[in-house]
Amino acid sequence: MTTYVQLESRRRLAEHGLGLFSLLLCNYGDFFTGYLVTLFSGIFEHAKFLIVILPVLMNLRGCTYVAYSTRIITKLRLGVIEPRGVRQKGLLVEMKAAYAVSLLSNLIAGILAALVVDPLHTDIVTAVAMLSGLIGVSIVVPLSTLGFFEVFKREISPETLAGPLESIIGDMITVPTLLAAFIIISFLYSIDRILVTILIILITLSAFIIVRSALKEEGKPYTVWSPKKTIIENVIAGVVASMIELIVGLKLESRLSTLTTYKVLLFAAFPAMAVVGGVAVRYAAYLNSGLHLGSIEHEPLPRGVAARYYYRSIMISLGIYMNVIGMSIIYALAMHEPLILCLVPFAAGMLSTVIMLYVTYLLSIFLFRKGINPANVATSLIMPLCDLTTVTIYMAVLSLIH
Fold it and tell me: Could you tell me if 27 and 274 are in contact, meaning their C-beta atoms sit under 8 angstroms apart?
């Protein structure tokens, strides 16, 4: 006869296996992203603003989707929503908020990026950012919602998939949607530049209509789930994150010639950054649920449940980065590039992981103490900080080797 302990052990094993599988899947998805960037490197070299805004857009996708999924998971835990159809007030308002945050954040991020990289073409850069964001959120929000419902109904912890699932979907669709948006905007621009401005106005109006619809739910008993609070906190966090990611994009652009000469570095750069972000936001999802449920104490160092997931995340990262080395070696051999370069993503990624997991813990605790829902802000700040830390160490290690 199967005991409760055995059933619980099997459930946890299934969770860990699913978590590792999802991170590996995420890793391969990011290699797909890296491959697309190397494949279309000519376009990125021709329109250099694309490589600068790519980390910004990838981060906004991840932040918007992960923050959305983290709120959905916590609501499922608290019984605010049920794992069934989308016609639930508690769910619909979150979906509207995700659309609003995505469109408004991309609008602001596009303007900021344009002012930094190409002020004379602010309309083009902004339109590309907004259009790719609209396409992306329309794909990810419905799919991820159904995915979390199915996982939750099978009594598997949805936190296991929170970071990796959103990261892989967000990262895999960012380059295709960015290139598609660039082609569409370039076509409209070739006809009449005013068409680009009209498109920006239409998408912006749509965003404000969605915001107004979401705010009608204000006053309902959602406390920290207030639509206004969610939208404001996410947009602010998205803007701050975009400013950080602009630095990441500029760092990539500054070494673009080296990265395109030794394409294994470009191929592995995005997977290296994404693993850190995926593990950190997964850790943040556990922290968010634990803080709301009271199972995690406000300690300066991770203890108990928080410590267990901290060290487990490091071990998982080690396994994933072995995969990064393997894929990098295969690519380097195929492209006849130096194998020593394959150590760059591994060294940068592991060091960044250890640092950023602790930063994630401190940030989540700090925000919760200040009455700010970590689900709205923590992930939006963690992901760009992970990218910035990783790319900084990445370039430093590269300088030592090459």
Answer: yes
